[in-house]
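Milestone 3.1: sequence recovery, worked example.
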């Protein structure tokens, strides 16, 4: 089983926002989305931004906001449903950028069976958008995604990708034929379980929900174990209250998949936002079984939405860089006192 140690966090003081999910594109750059964002250099605030990180080492990265994504609204701007747009996971496939967007807001999509549902930030009505010019223009439009979401409801409301190498190159466990994604049961934080979906690589650009399938069995290499019905999906990880929205990274030298889960251990909502906990999982295939192998807690700093930077995995697979962001309650503070920024944390794995 793997062991881990985390290094000293480093903040990018030119950034401001959260949920910095990153992908390594074919041009060698790292593209990141940011939510509730000021982007890089103090941009006009928006619900989501598209950014690029240029540089060959984590300490030399230079960030630039390349699209304010105006059609998705100013920061905290709500629509008729009472919700805001947020970006979820992002990836690069065949030179094109793909990002999931969905509608987020506390108690907007409630589930009477959920014990503290009204306190959580729900995520629902997800759609996939694509850019063939590295983030400058996108389709589908925000109006299309609002009026006719690809994945209605919460079951696939917070999708993130299973990531491989540069430009999404995989080649194992069917990743040469499919793009995989994972989602919890419709929350930003403190959800309950995770499911897996797939789409043929050659069809992902169609942005058609009919091309997607959801793992309903136990063996993702068997076509019979996939269903067209997302409500038939079988959770591959169940940990009530501790499954927030996050993605998965394949570590090729170690032949293992890593998922960094996170949650607020003191509950949900603004009052609980001063401390987070991370749980590290590993698995032999994207659909598990997922085994916990370590964790960390962050009182005060409250780092959340961790993302492994694909570009910065060492040749032996033991050294990683995790992108994250800190306590959103510090967003109004100045300088290093504001933790609501893109933050890089070195991670060392061992056997």
């Amino acid at each position: 089983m793997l062991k881990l140690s985390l290094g000293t966090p480093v903040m990018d003081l030119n950034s401001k926002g959260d949920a910095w999910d990153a992908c390594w594109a074919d041009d060698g750059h790292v593209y990141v989305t940011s939510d509730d964002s000021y982007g890089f250099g103090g941009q006009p605030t928006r619900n989501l931004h598209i950014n690029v990180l240029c540089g060959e080492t984590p300490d030399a990265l230079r960030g630039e906001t390349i699209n304010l994504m105006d059609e998705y609204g100013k920061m905290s701007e709500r629509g008729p449903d009472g919700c805001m747009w947020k970006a979820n996971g992002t990836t690069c496939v065949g030179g094109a950028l793909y990002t999931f967007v969905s509608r987020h807001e506390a108690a907007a999509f409630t589930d009477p069976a959920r014990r503290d549902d009204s306190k959580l930030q729900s995520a629902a009505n997800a759609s996939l958008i694509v850019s063939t010019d590295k983030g400058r223009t996108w389709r589908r439009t925000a109006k299309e995604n609002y009026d006719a979401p690809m994945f209605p409801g919460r079951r696939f409301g917070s999708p993130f990708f299973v990531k491989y190498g540069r430009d999404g190159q995989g080649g194992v466990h069917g990743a040469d034929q499919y793009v995989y994604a994972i989602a919890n049961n419709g929350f930003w934080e403190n959800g309950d379980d995770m499911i897996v979906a797939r789409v043929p690589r050659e069809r992902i650009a169609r942005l058609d929900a009919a091309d997607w399938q959801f793992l309903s069995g136990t063996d993702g290499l068997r076509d019979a174990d996939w269903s067209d019905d997302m409500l038939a999906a079988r959770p591959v990880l169940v940990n009530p209250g501790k499954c927030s929205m996050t993605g998965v990274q394949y570590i090729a030298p170690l032949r293992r998949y890593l998922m960094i889960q996170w949650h607020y251990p003191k509950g949900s909502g603004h009052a609980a936002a001063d401390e987070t906990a991370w749980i590290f999982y590993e698995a032999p295939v994207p659909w598990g079984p997922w085994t916990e192998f370590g964790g960390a807690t962050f009182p005060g700093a409250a780092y959340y939405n961790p993302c492994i930077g694909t570009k910065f995995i060492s040749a032996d697979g033991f050294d990683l860089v995790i992108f994250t962001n800190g306590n959103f309650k510090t967003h109004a503070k100045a300088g290093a006192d504001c933790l609501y920024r893109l933050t890089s944390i070195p991670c060392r794995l061992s056997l």
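The chain has one domain: 3-350. The mean pLDDT is 95.
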